[in-house]
Specification:
Layout (H helix, E strand, L loop, with lengths): L1 E9 L4 H16 L4 E9 L11 E2 H9 L3 H18 L10 E2 L3 H12 L3 H14 L7 H10 L4 H8 L2 H16 L7 E4 L3 E4 L4 H17 L1
Parallel strand pairs: 1-2
Antiparallel strand pairs: 1-5, 3-4, 5-6
């Protein structure tokens, strides 16, 4: 059994990040007889200056990228279809909002030390994309954290702790300096970068080649 370290740089309001992860999950399932993966998530804020009440998602995409309503509708249809393919439910709607994710990343960084980061990451993707929750709302974050077995009082403390906010910002800066300026970014064994939500077949091929070549080294 070959052990593989996989680091995923992502944001919980990035639809391609959850699609990319689900494709990776399928790849690792296919390789489960030969590869054992250790996965760690890392923060990347798509909108670090976003206010706490967020912004209408369609308006945000129009302002940031010049996305037309027609292109937005087409993109949502594509994402919904791709989500169905990998077993994830997107529920886009006209009033959907984009939110600041700093608090979410603070929790995720802390949850790693509690052995709950993986579960919380997937729970937050579900809360935002499938349930339409405000991913910046402290009460919602506490509820999600409790659902994966984390202590509510400690969670509240982490959310309000400026040192955790600074730790997230520092980590994000390190990834930017390493050349990561878009997500998802998947790094295998700390040195092989796979950018974007690549296909399951490509991921199977890449992981197989990397694990075999490094075993020979």
């Amino acid at each position: 059994m070959k052990k593989v370290r996989i680091d995923i740089v992502s944001d919980v309001v990035c639809p391609w990040c959850i699609i990319g992860y689900k494709r990776l999950e399928a790849a690792l399932k296919t390789l489960s007889d030969s590869v054992e993966a250790e996965i760690q998530w890392h923060p990347f804020e798509l909108n670090p200056a976003m206010t706490s009440d967020g912004q209408n998602l369609r308006e945000h995409l129009k302002e940031k990228y010049g996305t037309t309503d027609e292109a937005s509708i087409a993109a949502r249809d594509t994402l919904t279809s791709l989500g169905q393919e990998v077993g994830f439910k997107f529920r886009f709607h006209d009033e959907m909002r984009i939110y600041n994710t700093r608090r979410a990343h603070q929790l995720l960084m802390w949850a790693q030390s509690e052995g709950k980061q993986f579960d919380l990451e997937l729970r937050l993707f579900q809360a935002y994309f499938s349930e339409g929750k405000n991913i910046d709302d402290p009460d919602m974050l506490i509820t999600c954290a409790e659902s994966v077995g984390l202590d509510a009082k400690v969670v509240e403390s982490v959310i309000n702790d400026q040192s955790w906010a600074e730790a997230v910002a520092s980590t994000e800066q390190q990834w930017l300096e390493a050349g990561i300026n878009a997500v998802p970014a998947i790094i295998i064994n700390r040195k092989h970068l796979i950018s974007g939500a690549q296909t399951t077949d490509l991921l199977i091929s890449a992981i197989t080649q990397i694990s075999q070549s490094e075993e020979q080294d």
